[in-house]
Amino acid sequence: MAGQLPPPPPPQWVLDLTSTTTPSKPKSGSIPDPPGFTSTTALTTKQSKSSSKAITPRKQPSPDEMDTLKLKKAWELALAPAKQLPMNAIGMYMSGNSLQIFSIMMVFMLFKGPITAVLNIQSTFQRLETETNRTQMLGVKAAFVGCNLLALALGLWKVNGMGLLPTTRSDWLAWETAREPLERAYYVPS
Amino acid sequence: MLLPLLSAATLLLTPSLAVFQDEAFHIDYHFALLGAPKESTTFFHQPNPASKASLIYTLSEEGALGAVNPRDGSLVWRQLLQGQHQSNASFLRAGEGQDLVVSGSLNQVAAWSAEDGRLAWRTATDGVLRDVEILELSDGKEMVGAKDAVALSGSHGAQSSVVRLDGATGAVKWTYEFDGSDEAYQVSASSTHIYAILLHKTLLGYLRIRVVSLDPVTGKKIDEYMLSSENELATADTIVSVGANSASPIIAWTDAAHSTLKVNVVGSKAISSFTIDQHAGETVARVQVHAPYHINSLSHFLVHYETATSHWADVFHVDVNNGKVTKAYSLPKLAGKGAFSTSTSDANVYFTRITRDELSTVSSASHGILGRWPVTSFGVVSGIGEVIEPVHAVSEVSVKGDAVSAIRTVVLLSTGDWILLRGGTATWNRPEILASTVAATFAMPAEVEAFAERLQAEASSNPVSAYVQRLTRHIAELKDLPALLVSFPQRVVNGFLGTSEDDLASDNFGFHQIITCATRNGRMLALDAGNPNRILWNRQVADLKKEQAWNPRLASSKGGEVTINSQAGTGFRYNISNGEQLVSILPVDVEGDAKAAREVRFTMTDSALDATVDSKPAWHFSPASGQTIHSLVPRPVNDPVASIGKVLGDRRVLYKYLDPNLALLVTKSSLTLGPSNTATFYVLNTVSGAILHASTHNDIDLTSPIATLISENWLAYSFTSAASATAPKGQQLVIGELFESLVPNDRGPLTGNQNYSSTISTPEPYTLTHTYQIPEAISKLAVTRTKQGITSRQLLALLPDSGAIVGIPYNALNPRRPVGRDATKDEQAEGLLRYNPVLEFDPKWLLSHQREVLGLEEVVTSPALIESTSLVFAWGLDVFGTKISPSFSFDILGRDFNKFQMLGTVAALGVLTFVVAPLVTRKQVDQRWKFL
User: Which residue of B150, B180, B531, B538 has the smallest Cβ count within 10 Å?
Assistant: First the structure.
């Protein structure tokens, strides 16, 4: 037992707790902040110090900028259905071609979404439409309709896969009539 | 769009089950029949000598031998003797105290265990059997074991012979051959002699009775003599009776005019002659002798005289010592027909007389009546105004002191019913007349058809007028409301217990169709297919002479009527619900729907088919040389087809070759010609006479039945191929389907032409066939029929060897089953499986399931009002009927539907709603008051 090891340095969290480098004055008078609590004011001051730039109050965008922004937003809205397409396609593929309540409901939703979206196209883009960007908005709307049509096409593909589209001869068989013979033969037992 | 969807749905359901367990014995019915019993072969007999319980044994006119339990009329056992011909004489005897019954028919003598009907032995004789008797010897030493049988046989013109057969083994003990070519008539055994009675034909064509007495032990001739004078007997018909196996057997005969009765006690040469009283100028039509059949009973007998309107009887006594016959007393003359039966108790003999309204028993010794029972009703139905008469009867009497304590009588009635009277009350009846059914058809009651037509009208008119029609119909039905309300609780109970026997008028499903059957003896009767245990009516429709064939054909042209065409006359119409004959005002056109189409009529003569148009010859078909026509089946007139094409797995269409003028013709080589037996099957266009398809099969067993069928666009036939060097004997079922074209989506050369004439151009069909090896012969083929033809089809086949009727799903036979490869995905979607040449009958296909249905000959089907169901009725000896749903009952709730569970669920939900409702209200109110 000759020499004692020197005591280990205190761990970081102890240092953090005990450090009083940024003593913040507590918000509410007498109650001190809990140890390790860094007040937001201290942080902002730090940041502001590092960026060394004063925040200027946000200035109102000009009408041109506003139009651009609105157009941008409108494009986002218009392309949203297209973004859902891959997921829908996977869902449709997964649900199978059999006529079951689940797949029928999925197909129904698939049809309902695009159709209602197309019907509500005016209200969707009303907020973003201004007098000046009307012409550009037409393109956006066309894109929106196109995307929804894509979704519809997906639905059609699915319905076709389920065999619900009357595309084959057998679907029209009921409307074909048998030929009527002009003669009728009867057996007369002798 | 509805039709193809529905048909697609029905296609998806591959019918694997024909009969469900819970439906067996409920939807099907079966009369296990024997046929009309013959008087001489019907008797009570104890199957077990130790017990007193007896059964009724009979050998019927249909050649069925069986035992019936006298308690309830159920069949104990039954055997079909070979040679089901009514013209052949057949015999059934049972020795006293024996557990065997001995039958004889054609040239077969057979002994059957009386208890269970198992064959004990069978022996063939040289000629056709004329009589069979049991030897009741009184010498004691022969009595041990089974009693021997004596058989008399002789073909026409050949030597007759008597053989004695060992009772236990059937071995021949001795044979005696008669000299000369006298026709053997009957054999009779007393305790010491065997008497053979032969008919000797004199030069003038009259008959003389020749009696030969033989020694029963050695079979040597003891004596021989001739009876009757030179010109008394013209035919054997006037020989009334040759009593057998009694203490003193007698021979009785009359002259042709039934004016004198001559009686001879066999063994003595003396003939007693009695004049027959001619009552009030009525001629005696029939004379019968009833004598006891026991060797140690009193030798008394009864002679039964019958005129057209009345009957009476005389009782005679025979003095055993000197063979003198004396008249003891008479039974009074009564109006109508009567039947007499003889029963014995120890040595005493009792005669029972059955008339229209009374049963009475007298002792043979005196005319005092020992028992009398009024018969109020025989418990059977008859035609309107018809009086039911007894035809013949057999009784079992038990006597205590001087009175009859109990009497059981089985009576065959003129309606063809076989009933048992216990005392004077009818206990059971067996409708044996159904065993002689020769034609049958389904008919819809008028009310049901009217209802169906109204529904049809509602379905086909525009929605508004259909609604108005329905409303008016419902308002009109309101007048039945009080009656409905009264019967409602009962109906609910019945519905739950499954015992509903709703009447004919309120049959919304068309299950209660009326089956009218015409029988061989000129009667017609009606059954309700939904409630078959009751015969609706039973009447004489044709006055036939004995053995006269009348070949009736029944058809129901419109609701509530059936038309009968026969050799006796055509176009007789009857009301199917009560059997009343309808006065024919208009000549009935059987085919009905002539529309504007030109009519071609074709008939089959012996060796050719001839067709005429407007009474000018149109075409002529004669088979190839050495061939004769076996059968011809035209496509049914009423054969609805739901879809004109077959939808393939990839939803393309294969068009069916649909032509109403198709017929399947079978020609076969005439048996006398050549060693190679061939049969050719032709599909003909019956308008132009063109052969659309032909196939020839070699080495066919032509003695086996060939069953044929054509329906829709397909045909089926079945035959037995004879054994050859390369192949064993086997049964084959061939199925062929006709298509417009084998290319999908192609309608053939005529495309969609609305009208076409077969005489101008007959496009030939493309035929696909498959042959299947089947385990047993099919005697008759039929197909299920439904209202619109949407339901998939089942081929109904009668299997005579196993006594069954089988329903083969069409898909199992489909000629489009791929050969030599597995089915592709598209083919699997159609339900096609790889072709397998051996077709086993799945036990589940058996419509008759556990029942043994013997002797079926014909089967008819009829559509019910609902699409899923087809009614089936098969007849022959037995009668069997059922209703089948080849694609399952998709439009009606089955028996497995649990009404209790459904109502229980509804009730539980209702209770739950009431219990939960206050809780929910409270919770909602609480929620409103809660601050957030």
Answer: B180
